[in-house]
Structure formats: C-alpha cells, structure tokens
Amino acid sequence: MADFRLLRDAKPWFKALTTKDGGFAIDFEIYYFCLMAGLASGKKRVELSTTETAELVQHFPGRYKERGKVIVGLFLARYLSSLGVDLKDKKQAHHQISKLISPTSPNYLSDDGMKELNKYAAGGYDEITEWFEDSPRTLESFLRTFASKVNIKMQPIPI
Amino acid sequence: MATEIKLVGWAATGFRCPDHQVELINEQNVPYHITLIQMPNGTGKTTTLELLRLALSGGAMNKTTQFIREYAKEEDAVEPGVMEVKLLVDNKVATFVMTFDFTQGKASYKTTFKSGQSSGFNPPQEIKKFLNPDFIDYFILDGELAEKLLNNQQAAAQNVIDALFQVDSLKKIANKINEYWMQVAGGVTTTTNQGYNRQKNLVDEIKIRLGQLERECDGLDHRIKTITVSLASKKAEHQAAIEANKAQNSELLEAQLRLHELEIEEVKLTTELHELCASPENLSEIFASSILNLKLGLDRVKLPEAAAREFFEELCFEQECICGREINPEIVKTIKAKASQYLGSDDVSFLNALKTAIDEAVGKDPDIHRKNLNKHLELLTEKVGEVNSARTTVELLNSRASEIDPRVKEAQDEIERLTGDLREAEILREKYDSEEDNGQISRIFGLNILRKKLKDAEEYLAEITGTLEVKQKTAILKSILDNAYNVATKKISTELVEDTNINLKRWLPNNDLEVDSIHGHLRLRGRTRGSAGENLSVAYGFLSTLFNRTSHSLPFIVDSPAGALDNSVRKKIGETIPKLTSQFVTFIISSERQKFINEGIERVTSDIQYLTIFRKRLSNYLILAEKIEHTLVTKDGVIVDSKDFFEQFDLDDD
After folding, report:
1. I need a surface site. Which of B171, B371, B602, B604 has the fewest CB within 10 A?
2. Helix, strand or coil for residue B295?
3. Contacts of residue B277 in chain A, CB cutoff 8 Å?
4. Residue B508 resides in a domain
5. Is B85 in contact with B7 (CB distance < 8 Å)?
6. Sheet (strand B20-23) strand order
7. Chain A residues with CB-CB distance to B278 below 8 A
C-alpha cells in the first residue's frame, strides 16, 4: 500500500505556514496545495526517487478525509486526459481506471496510481516555487497568491 | 534501598591548613543537625573542603606529584599529610584514611568498615555511587557548583539527577547493549576488517556530528524561547506605558483597537478562504468541470456496470444460466474471459461512491464554486488593505508617542532590538531542519537527515557483519530503555522544577526568578543568567528539592553558604536549610553570620554546633579560647566548640 510522499524540499519552503500559528495544521496541507498546482499546470516530475521524498500518510487526513474521493476524481480526470484516454471508449476507460484505483486502499489508489499522484505533487511544488518570489510568510498571502495563480496557470485539458 | 550517610568528624594533620580535629556529634554520640564551622579567610577553609572531597571520593589516587606536594604544610615536608574522615553509614562507622606522601608525591588510602581495615579506597557497596569524584561535588559544594548547574555547556544538573535517582542505570544498560552489538559485529568481521572499520568509522562520525548539532540546536531553541518571552514582556511594558497616559495617547489606543478588530476579521476571512481552497472544485471552473465530466463520462459508458465481475465468476459454477440454458465447459471458458472486462464489486462500489461524492461537491453548475471563491478573495484582499492602512496609522502614532514619552521610546527600541535578535536566531535555527543532503556528513546540518543516516549506517554495519538480527533486537531494547529514561527524567525534572520554583518564590518573591526546565543544565525562564546571589539561590533551591525527594539521606557540606546573598535572602535561605537535610555542615566567615544564622537557621532549630577554627598565631583569640572547656590546641591550630566564642569571634580577613 503506497503512501502519499512529500518532496523533502517542500517542508522547509512552507515552514512559516507549518509553525504553531502558521495555519497549516498538518503536513498534508503542503501536499494538497502542491498536488493542486501540479494538476492545474499539468506539470509532474518524470522520475521521483524515495530519497527525494518523505513518507507522509496512507490515508486522507483531517478535512481531506471527506474530500478524498473528489481529489481522486480530479486526479483520474486530469491524468486520463493527459494520456489521451477517451471516456467514450469504455474498454480503455475501464482498463486505465482499474490500473489506477484500489478501493480497499485507505487512499483509494493502487500503487501505480499513488506513484503518479506523487509525481504531480512534486511537479506542483516546482510550479509553486515559480509562482512565488520567496517562500510564504503568512497563510493569508499564500492563499491569495495561490488562488490567483492556480487559475491563471490552469491548463484546460478537455476530457 | 534507602541509605543514610552522616559525617561524624575528621582529623587533618600535616597539610597546609592548621592541624585540626573535629567531631560533629553531641554528648549522646548523635551528629548535630547543623554544624557551623567558622574559619577566617586564610585558615585553609578551601583546603579542608578539598581534602574532605578527596578523602571521600578516592580522587587523590590519580593526582600528579605536584598536586600532592602542593598540600604540604611546608616545602620539603617529610612528615606525611593524613586526613581521616569518619562516616556513619546506616549507623555503622566507616573510616577513610587518606595519606599524602609528600616525598614521593603519592596518595594512598585505607578503609575500615564492618569486618576490618583494607588498603585502598573501598567504600561500602551501597554508598559507592555517592563516594566518587563525579558525585562528591554535589554534597560537598562550593560557589562554583551554582555556576556549573547553570552552565549550558555542562550537564551537571542532569548528572546529579541521573546519579541520585539512579535513572542513569537505564542509560548504562542501553550503552552496554550497544557495546555488545558492536562487539558481536566487530568479532564477525575479522576477515573483512577494512570494510568493517570504514563503516564503523562512519557510524561514529555521524553520532558525534548528530550529538554536536543537537546540542547547538537545543541552545538555539532556548535562545528563541528566551527572546520570545522577553519580547512579550517588552510589548506588555510598551503597552502599559502607552495606557499610562490615556489622555495623550487616546488616538493611538483607538487606532490599536481598530487594528486589532481588523486583524480578527482578516483571520476569519483567511480561515474561510483556506476552507474553500481545500476543495478542488472551488479552485477553478476547469477543475470543477473536469471532475463533473469524469462523472458524466462514466455515466455515459455505464461505468460501473450494474453487474460486477464476481457475478459472472460465480455463474461458472452453476449447471444452468439464469435464462435456463445449460452451462457447459465451453461456455464457462467464454464467461470467464468476458468477466475480466467487468469491474470487481469493490471497484463498482468505489466508482458509485466517487460519483456520489462528485455530485455532492460539484452539483450541476461547475462554474458557481470558483465564483464564490472569488468573492471571498476580493473580501480578503480588501480587508488586507484595511489592515495595512490601520497598521501604518498605528506605527505613525507610535512614533509620535515615543517622541513624547521616553518610556514608550525605550520599550519600542527594545522591541525592535529583540525582534531583530529573534529573526537572527530563527534564521540560524533553520539549517537544523534542512532536508539537504550533499553526502558529506560534516556538511549536513539537518537533524532528521543525520538521524536517518545513522539508522541506515548502523543497519548496514549490522548487515555486513551478518548481525542484523542482533542489531534489530538490541535496537528494540535500546529504544525501550531510552524511552524509559526519557519518560523518567522528564517526570522527575518537571517535578523538581516545580518544587525548586516554589523555594525560589519564597526566597526571592520580587525577583521574577524561575527555573524553566532542565536540559543538562538548569535553564532560567526568560533569561540566561542571574546575579551571583540569584544563581546561588537557584542552586540551593534545586539541590534542596533534590535532596528532599530522594530516599537517600546525605549530609550537605557547604562552603560560604551566604557569601553572595543579600541580607533578606540570607534570612530566608537560613530558615530553609535545616529543612533540606538531616545534616548540614557549613564553613562560614564571621561576616556571613549576619541574618543567616540568628534570623535564619536559629529560628528553625536549636540542634546546632558552633565550631571556630583559627591559626594559633592569632594570640588574642588564643588567650580567650584557652579559657573555654574542650578547646583543642594543635601544633598550629585552635578548635573551639562554643556558641559564645563563635559569636564573639569577628575576623573576616587575616
């Protein structure tokens, strides 16, 4: 069962937001925002070694618990689209979805699915560091910039 | 088992202090609760204390020739120096005789206990842990101990806790276990020595670096905490100075209030925006559409199907299909092949749940979510503008208040300085969280990286020596012991800190002096050091708490107990000392008596022995002393056991 894995570089970059009053109560928040940036921009790391990343959790924690399925849905939509999978082609859709999901896993993803998701999160971190001149100092400034940039940098991949 | 040690007396001859003999027992042969030994400066107070330490720790055995000879009464002394110390160990007499042979420059010991005399320093087993060079300073103490306990480069406070509560046994066992594994690993690798040595050196290198960085990091954490506390207190002072002049600063106070309200609103809007951003469909219309289109796409191709793979797999075991046709082996083959095109029941349930979740999150209009987020974004941006403007106003009015009131200015300057210091310390602290790994151990600063490297290196060492299983077992055992040590010391330290602070509050109610924690040394709250008197009070407070809590009873032998203390503190510490221990022996000079004895110790107990020791050449006092019963006059010293004489004797300097 694969874990969500966070790039080692990411945690220090978000340090100001992970302190006691920083706003990010759990490290998964970092992962989530990186993942969203990766899925928006379509950027992902081609290769991701375990030495570059650190284990985070296996399940969707905190407020993300109830949003886990929607996040997986977004990942499936964006990833299948990037592969050129046409959802009208039932056989192909069935084949790809079966490869990516694992309903018995606490994160609903197969090992292959989680590998891909982690690549998007890592690529998303690279993307975010381009969106910001410096690492964020307050949650308010981070969210405002993130919310604007994620819209601007969104790649409209039709599905 | 609890052990009681009492000091019965000692006799010193041939040393540079006057020859003297003291017995700390009353007519019933019971040691006094308090013994006050008055020795004017120059009488050899420090020498006597040092001799006591050496005699009761075996510490002279490894001393140099020069060290030994420095204790001689005169140069080229032929007569040996002999120090005989008597203890009561659980009511049984133990005698230690330490002899300094000044011609040879060597020390030797003889010990007498129960069955007879033996050569060497051989304290009874039950008190070995106290009578050794590492521990002796904690019950025969001088002014330097306070410095040691508070010195962040030393672990004196932790050491005494470890020794007294014997929690160090857990560490010792853990070290032994590690040594055992290293021994096993070392033994196996005799044929591959080079590889083993290289790996072993790597393990050692990482351990040393990790230990050093952990200490540095710990120091910085404390500095940050200290500055943060000071900053909060300075901000409170700054605010108090502003509020003290309400009329003049009314505009500023109003602006501060407005800023505070706006900041609360800003936090609320930020929290709301955070909540919205945490749902993907809110971040972009394209995200929302993508998710919705996935659901619609799946619906379109009827995924998941109404039937799951398992339905067809089970059908293969039936004789007939549900339509009534016979199922022969050929049909079974076909059904099995086609079944793989269907999703499993778990997958079916998940996809159905996924679609429901998408329906609930996105609904029918994917564009509405980002629009809602945009509204919040605008509100927050507007609020940030208001906060910034309000902050500028406050800063402006602050500067004005500073110009008018020097107290406001002073506090403000201090706040700026502390803020700068805090930032500097935080920047220095950052590198210890670094995840950077450039390979070379000496260039790694990230503690987590080093901890992981140590674990990997130890495991590899175990692997190459074929001792992985032993390593894993020893690691588990070591982790249990480390955990037990940490839990025990944390609990003990917390209780000791609380009780020490109760003492300090009683002695120094106006000094705002508190111990924050024990991290090897005693850390003060909100400051790095106190005055000499404060440090001494902290040391007394800590040691008295410590001695009170342990089940062992040790004498407390102290040099100059009140020297650095103010009169008001002397009185309070004097009142407390008799409660610290069942035997308190102190070396004192006449100027220290004031308040400490008459308004302190004597108020609490009358079981006090008053001894005065001085050099024979003080002829005026010698004449007086000779008139007193039991006065002992030696070759060069006089020992008087009398309260009246003690009180009349008034000589600070020789």
Report:
1. B371
2. helix
3. 33, 143, 146-147
4. no
5. yes
6. B20-23, B5-13, B81-89, B92-101, B106-113, B116-119
7. 29, 32, 63-64, 67
Report d(CA B243, CA B247) in Å as an integer: 9
Over 80: is that where the pLDDT of A17 sits? Answer: yes
pLDDT single digits (tens) A121-147: 999 999 999 999 899 999 999 999 999
Nearest beta carbon to residue B358 from set A70, A87, A108? A70
Minimal-distance CA residue of chain B relative to A51: B437
Cα of A128 to nearest chain B Cα, Å: 15
> Could you tell me the pLDDT band of residue A159, with boundaries at 50, 70 and 90?
very low
What's the CA gap between B201 and B218, in Å, rounded?
26
Torsion of CA B375, B381, B387, B390, to 10 degrees: -100
Give the span between the Cα atoms of B19 and B12, in whole angstroms.
5
Length of chain A in terms of residues written: 159
Q: Are residues B254 and B399 in the same domain?
A: yes
Q: Which of A112-126, B286-300, B342-356 has the lowest mean pLDDT?
A: B342-356
- Residue B366 lies in domain: 249-308+343-404
The CATH code of the domain that includes B51 is 3.40.50.300
Q: Would you call B298 and A54 a contact, using CB atoms and an 8 Å cutoff? A: no
Residue of B290, B430, B456 for testing the chain A interface, max A β-carbons within 10 Å:
B290
Which of B359, B384, B404 is a domain's end point? B404
Q: CA Rg, chain B, in Å? A: 38
Q: Does residue B573 lie in a domain region?
A: no
Cβ–Cβ of A69/B354 closer than 8 Å?
A: yes
| Annotated domain spans of chain A | 5-152
Please tell me chain A's helix, strand, coil percentages from 3-state DSSP, rounded to the nearest 5: 55, 5, 40
Residue-wise pLDDT tens digits, B516-552 = 888 888 888 877 677 766 777 788 788 878 877 777 7
Distance (Å, rounded) from C-alpha B644 to C-alpha B610? 9
- Give the count of alpha carbons within 13 A of B194, CB side only: 0
Give the position of tokens 């009511």.
B91
Q: What is the 3-state secondary structure (H, E, C) of B425-485?
A: HHHHHHHHHCCCCCCCHHHCCCHHHHHHHHHHHHHHHHHHCCCHHHHHHHHHHHHHHHHHH
Q: Residue B629 domain-assigned?
A: yes
Is the CB of A12 less than 8 angstroms away from the CB of B295? no
Whole-number Cα distances in Å, B24 to B9, B92, B582, B604: 5, 16, 13, 19
The complex's ipTM works out to: 0.96
